[in-house]
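Q: I'm writing up a methods section and want to include an example of the input and output format. Could you take the sequence below and give the corresponding predicted C-alpha cells, formatted cleanly so I can copy it straight into the document?
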Amino acid sequence: MGQSREGGARLAFVRVWTVVGVLVVAAVVLAVLDRLSSVLLFLAVGCLAAYVASPLVNLLSRHRVPRGVASIVGVVVVALAVVLLFSLIIPLFFSQMTDLLSDLPARISGLGSWAAGLERQYDLFQQIGEYVDTGALVSSLQSMLTGLVSALLSAISNGLVPAVSNIASTVFTVFLGLVFAFWLVCDYPRINEEICLVLGPRRADDYRVTLAVVSRSVGGYLRSTLIDSLIQGSLACVGFMLAGHPYAGLMGVLSGVLNFVPVVGPSVSAIIATGVALFYSPTMAFWTMVAAMVAQNVTDNLIVPRINQSTMQIHPVLSLLAIMVGSALMGPLGMVVAIPLCAIAKGLFVFYFETRSGEQIVSYDGALFRGTPFHDGEGRPVPASDALGEERFAESEIMPAPRDRADATAAPRPDSPWKRLWDRLGARRGGGDDSGAES
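A: Here is the clean output for your methods example:
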C-alpha cells in the first residue's frame, strides 16, 4: 500500500516537472526566436530567393552561361519581380484599406435605418421583429463592429510606427539575404558534393533522397500555391468589379493572400468580401458571393489539377489532419506549413518503407499513396523514384546515386475510364457514319 502511494507520488512529481520543463523550454525558444528575428529574416530571404532563382540559374548553366553570371541574373530577376509585384499591390492595398476604414463607421451607424427598412419592406423581418428586439440587436452589432474597426486601426498604427523606424535595418537584412542567395545558388552543387563526401557513400544516398524529397515537396507546394493564389486573386478581383464592389482591388488582394491558408482561407476571404458588400447593398453582397464561389471553383477544378500534375498528391484526409495539427501547434503559420511538411513526411515514409520491406506501396489507383510506381530492369520497385512521384519531375530533381535509378522506368499508366468512354462514343459515331454512307 505504501509502495503504491510512493509510486503515485513519484509519477505525479515527474508529470509536474515535465510540464514545467516543457513550459520553460517553450519560453526559452520563443525568447531566442524573438532575439534572432533578423537572422531568421536573413535566412528566409536568402533560402527562398535561392530556391526560386535556381531553375533559371540551372537553365542558363545548361546553355553554357558561367554559373556565377547565371546566379547574378537569377537573383536580380527574382528581386525585380518581387519589387514590381509589391509596387503594384501595396499602393492599391493601402489606398483602398484607408478608404474602407474611413467609410466603415458611417456605414455601421446606418445599420439601424437599414434594418428598419428591411422590416418595412419584407414580412419575414416584421415577424422576426415581433419576437426579437431588433433595435437592441442592431445596437449591440454596431458597438461590436465599431470596436473591431477601432482595434484594427490601433493595431495598424501601432505596427506601422515600428515598421517605419526599422525599415533601414530590414532593407539591409534583405540585401544581405540576397547576397546569401547568390552564393548559395552559385555553389550549391559543390556544397552538395562536399556534404556527400563527408557523409560517406552509405549515408550520401539517404541525404540525396531527403534533399530531393524536401525540394520536391516544398517547391511543388510553393509553386502551385503561388500560381493558384495569383489566379484566384485576379479572378476574384474581376468578379468583384463586375459585381460593383467598391473595394474590388482590396478584396482581390485579400483573396489571393488568404488562399495561402489551405481549406479555410478562401472561405474566410469570401465571407469578408460579402460582409463588406452587405453594408452597401444586399444585391451587391449576393453577386459578390457568387463571384467568390465562381473564382474558387474555377481555380480548384481547372487550374489546380494542371498545376499539381508535377507535385506530390496529398490525400484530403492527410491534408485536413495536417492542417488541424499545424493550427493547434503554430496557429495560422502552422496551417500554411502543414501541407509541405506532410508531403515531406509522406515521401520519406515511402522511401524508407519500400527500402526496408521491398514492397511497393505507391500505385496509380492508391488513396493515401497514389503516385507513379517505378521499377528497375528486373521488375523490382525503385524507392527513390517512388518517393519523388511523377516521372517528369523525377528527371529534373537532385537524384540519388546513379546506380540507384539508372534503369528505373515508370509502370504503364492504366487507361482512364473517361478515355475508354470517349473511344466507345467515337467508335459508335464512326459506325453510324459508315452505315449512313453505305445506304
